[in-house]
Specification:
This protein has about 90 residues and is an alpha+beta fold. About 25% of the residues lie in helices and about 40% in strands.
Amino acid sequence: MTHETTTTLPAAEVLRRAKQFFQGRVPGNAAFPEREGPTWLTLRGQGGEEIALAIVPGSGATRIRASTLFFDQAVGRFFSTLPAAEGAA
């Protein structure tokens, strides 16, 4: 499933928070960084399941798109920890 949100945080901070969140705040379902670039990150979890994050910086808001088959609930929880961009639903 694909998830999207917007935040006021810059891309580097979103990636830092994602690595910290998925390694430590998801008990029993941790995912660890596998590959990354300045605006993307893939994490690998139990059974080889993947979370792929893509970040698109913009003026006043940063768009985040996450794709996963197993970690849907965890991605939703991670998104809820990010400050929402003004006017974002």
